[in-house]
Each structure stands twice: as structure tokens, then as C-alpha cells.
Amino acid sequence: MPDALLWLSFGGPEKPADVRPFLENVTRGRGVPPERLDEVEQHYLGFGGVSPINALNRAAIEAVEAELAALGIDLPVYFGNRNWHPMVEDTVAAMARDGVTSALVFPTSAYGGYSACRQYDEDILRARAAVGEGAPELTKLRQFFDHPLFVSAFADAVRAAAEQIDGEYRLVFTAHSVPISADQAAGPPESGGHRYSKQVAEAAWLVAADLGAGEYDVVWQSRSGPPRVPWLEPDILDHLDALHAKGVPAVVLCPVGFVSDHLEVVWDLDREARDKARELGMGFARAAAPSSDPRFARLVVELVREHLSDAPARKLSDFPVAGRTVNGAPCAVGCCEPPQRSRR
Ligand SMILES: CC1=C(CCC(=O)O)c2cc3nc(cc4[nH]c(cc5[nH]c(cc1n2)c(C)c5CCC(=O)O)c(CCC(=O)O)c4C)C(CCC(=O)O)=C3C
Ligand SMILES: [Fe+2]
Questions:
Q1: 264 annotated among ligand-binding-site residues
Q2: Rounded to an integer, what distance in angstroms lies between the CA atom of residue 201 and that of residue 185?
């Protein structure tokens, strides 16, 4: 029986002085060129050096705590991040001090793949190693991109955004691009890879089906890394050009690859993509990510209860349940192996 829930997220800066050290934590050893870092630093500084992500996580945690309390489930929720304070190493140390011996982990990413899933296992491994003897058992909850509450929250968010558009529009889903090599390595090796992009396509299909939308696109955003390394394409900005050339009058963007309206969403979509649409004379609206929707707290609690009662997973796709890992071990041998790092 677990005695706590660890909310494990990406982390983000909360003041200007945090920005550079945060970015250095994110990109350590990943071959991201310094020019890209300078550019991204400016995005954060343009928002006063504060990413919305930590506040969004804290608000979502409060909603989950209320939901757990209402159901009489006694499970204190702890918050730890990969890249910024509260750092997961410190949180897991605090859990051990509080006498937690076994906890469930909710990762704030719905998908498989190295960046979206396996890297959270590495965080768990690192945090437990930092605590050493007496570190709690940490069991990660499954991937939830195909959970009915995730899908319906996005569908309703698209409906709300579409109300801002007069007339016709194209529905466009976005997710964080990753190197093609990372997507190839996503999933268990015998599955043929591409688990991340296939799941993104599946989630987009499920949301579009809920909406009854026959036509839509799936594109990528927030590309990083050196230009010579191929990443998933097309990029949302190029895609807006292509849609404009076809005479599409307006777009509704749905950031299906994310759970919250953090800086990658508000910068890359609400700033860059909206500006681009305006330049092209296209209508533009963006659907909210689900973390502030009451369904999100219910989803997290359902995942917890699924685990406690061993109930079957409520899911809308045929992808196997994945991401349930123990103490940072991968889902399967060779699953979502870290990409080869560029040599120095
Ligand atoms: C798949 C994926 C998700 C979704 C899954 C999940 O949510 O976990 C995600 C989320 C996020 N990515 C975020 C921020 C950043 N990602 C970067 C860089 C990278 N992301 C990658 C992938 C992903 N990233 C990759 C392959 C890189 C290249 C370097 C590397 O191999 O790691 C960089 C470095 C600078 C740059 O080059 O952009 C930053 C600042 C934030 C926080 C936003 C905020 O502060 O509000 C969030 C939630
Ligand atoms: Fe990222």
C-alpha cells in the first residue's frame, strides 16, 4: 500500500536569476547549441523570468488533494522536478525523512518516448540514489494519452477556442518535436519504434473523433538541438505558411502533446504562432491544455485508484499499457533508450 503520491514534473524558473541555471540543467550534456540557449533565455526573460509551469503544477496538486480528500483516500502529495526547485532529489529525501516507504509517482507527461517517459524514470533512479538507504519505493503511473478524461478535456477546450473563430477553420494538433532518432527508439525495440509520434497521432485522432472533425493536422513545435540533426516535422510555423497558401482562413491549435499551458505553449503558440497567423491574415485560437480542467484531477486520481485496486485501465486506444515502472527501471528491456549524445 503506497503511503504518498509524488508529482514529478519538468520544473521552470520563478525569477530572472533562475533562468540560466535552469536552462543549464535542462540541456546538460545534450548538445544544444549556445545560440539556441540564448534565444530560449530571451523567451523566459520576456515573461519576467517566470515560467507558468510551477504555479500550474501547484494548482493541479491542490485540485488532486481535494479530490483525494473527498474520496477519503489518505495519500499526501509531494512535488518534485527534474530541472528546477523543488528538485526531485530534495523531495524524495523529504519523503524519506517523513517516513514514506512506498509511493506512487505521477509524471506530468501523457506519452511514451525518451523525453516524455523514460527520462522521468531516470529522475526517479537519480533521486533514489541520492537518498541512498531508506529511499522510498517509487512506482510510476502509466501513460495516459488515451484516457477518456484526457481526451474529453482537450475536446472541450477545442470547442471553447473555436468559439473565438468566425466561420471555417483548420484544427491543428501540436506536440513537442524530438529528434527523429529519439522517436525511432521510442517504445520496446520489438514494437518497431516511433511510439511517441504514434501516440501523439492516436491522441489527436481521439480528440478529433470526439469533436466529429474529419480533417485535421498533427504538427510539431519547440524544436531544439543543432540544425544538422533531423527532428520531427513539419514545424507549426512552416505549417501555417502551407495552410495559408492553400487558402485556409483560420486555425484552432490544440497542444495535445502537453498537459499544461507552460512556457513552451505560451511562447511558441500564443506568441510566435499567433504573430505568424496575424502576419498572414489568418484567424487564430488556441485550446487550453487540461491541467486546469477539473477532469485532470479526476484523471490523476483514477490512475491512482486503478493502481490500488488493480482495476483495468480505462483507455480508448489499443496501445498496450506502458510507463508503469518501479524504482526507475525501464518498462521493458531497451524501451525508449536515451539517444546517443553528440560527442564533445
Ligand atoms: C517530448 C518533450 C516534452 C513533453 C513531455 C514533458 O512534458 O515532459 C517536453 C516538455 C517541456 N520542455 C520544456 C522546456 C525545455 N525543453 C528543452 C529541450 C528539449 N525538450 C525536448 C522534448 C520535450 N520537452 C527535447 C528532446 C529537448 C532537447 C534537449 C533534450 O534532449 O533534453 C529546453 C532547452 C532549450 C530549448 O532548446 O528549447 C527547454 C527550456 C518544458 C518547460 C516549459 C516551461 O518552463 O514552462 C516542458 C514541460
Ligand atoms: Fe522540452
A1: yes
A2: 17
Range of the domain at 221: 148-290
Query: Domain check: are 22 and 128 in the same one?
Result: yes
Indicate whether residue 224 lines ligand 1 (CB < 6 A): yes
pLDDT in tens, 292-307: 999 999 999 999 999 9
Same domain, 220 and 236: yes
Domain shared by 135 and 155, yes or no: no
Q: Does the structure show a pLDDT above 60 at 344?
A: no
114 is known to lie in a ligand binding site = no
For ligand 1, say whether the CB of 30 is within 6 Å of any of its atoms.
yes
Q: What is the number of structural domains in the chain?
A: 2
**144-200 pLDDT, tens per residue?**
999 999 999 999 999 999 999 999 999 999 999 999 999 999 999 999 999 999 999
pTM of the predicted model, to two decimals?
A: 0.97
Report the CATH number that the domain containing residue 282 is assigned in CATH. 3.40.50.1400
Percent of the chain with pLDDT over 70: 99
Clarify whether residues 282 and 296 are in a common domain: no
Instruction: For residue 29, name the pLDDT band (cuts at 50, 70, 90).
Output: confident
Tens digits of residue pLDDT in 191-206:
999 999 999 999 999 9
Nearest bound ligand to the CA of residue 177: 1
Q: How far apart are the first and last CA of the chain?
A: 46
For residue 120, say whether it is annotated as part of any ligand binding site.
yes
